[in-house]
Amino acid sequence: MNRRIFPIVLLLASAILPLSAHAAATLYFDAPASSTVGSALPVKLLIDSDEPLNAYAFTVNYSPATLQFIDTNDAGSIITVSRGTPTAVGGVITVKGGSFKPFAGAGGTLLEFDFVPSATGTATISVSNAAVYLANGKGTKVIPNVKNLTVNVAPGAATATSTNVVFPWQVAESGPPSVQYLGIISDPFNPHQNLLAFSVTDAGSGVRETDIRYRSTFFWSDWEQVRNPTSLPNGAWEINFRAINNAGIVSDQILYNWPALWILIAKAAGIVIIIVIFILLLIR
Known about the structure:
Layout: E1 25-30, E2 34-36, E3 41-62, E4 67-73, E5 81-82, E6 88-89, E7 92-117, E8 121-134, E9 141-142, E10 145-147, E11 149-154, H1 168-171, E12 178-187, E13 190-201, E14 207-215, E15 224-225, E16 230-232, E17 238-245, E18 250-256, H2 258-283
Parallel strand pairs: 1-10, 2-11
Antiparallel strand pairs: 1-3, 3-7, 3-8, 4-7, 5-7, 6-7, 8-9, 8-11, 12-13, 13-16, 14-15, 14-17, 17-18
C-alpha cells in the first residue's frame, strides 16, 4: 500500500514560520547517572513546555564505540503519530512525530532510547536539530533549550552483546494497547482515496506494531503491518485493525466502510437480478 503523511505531521515542515518570542520549551534526559558494561541503560527524553505543543523533530546523538543502541520504546509517549521508525545510523537517531492531544506542562515523555554500554568511561548522549511546534493553528516553530546527558560507565560482568539484558518495559505489568482513535478519513491530496487513521498508546510496555487486514469482497486479505495513516484499497468495506504491545497483548477492532459496503450490496443485487431475468427468459 502507498503510505501518506497524516496532516498533523505536516507541521514538522513549518520551518518558514516565525519563531515564538514567548514560548519556552526544554528537552532533557532521565537516566541513571552511572552504568556498567553489558547492562541495560534506558534513557528517556522528556520535555517541559509552558505552551501546548503537538509536533516534534529532533535527533539523538551517541557514540557507537561507547554505546550499543538496542531499540526505542514509546510506552507513555506523548507522540502518537510518527513519521517513520526511529533507527540508528552512524550514532544518530532521527525522530519526527506529532500528537493528537496537545501537550503542555512538565515531564512529557517523547521517547525512551534503550542502550547497552560497550566500553568503560564517560558516555555522552545529546540532542541536536531540535524543534517543536505550537498547537496554535499556525504550527509556530520553537527552538527548545536542550540539556544533554553524560553517564559514567564502569566495568561489568557481561559484554555488550549479552542476551540477558532486560529493560524495565520488558517486565512492566501491561494491559492491552489503548486505541484512542480509529477512523476512515479522506486523503487531503487525493479525494478519491481513503485513509485509515489511528492513534494507539501503551503505558506499560509500549506499542510493538499495528496491523490491518480488510475485505473488499467476501474474503480477508493477509495481515499487513502499517503506520499511521495508511491508504485503503478502493472497495474495502470491512477493516480489521489490531495493535500489539511489547508484552504480546493485542487490541483488536473492526471498522466498517458503509459506502463501500452498500456499493458491494448493490452490485451483488444487480447480478442476482440479471440471473433471475435470464432464468425467466429461458423457461418462457
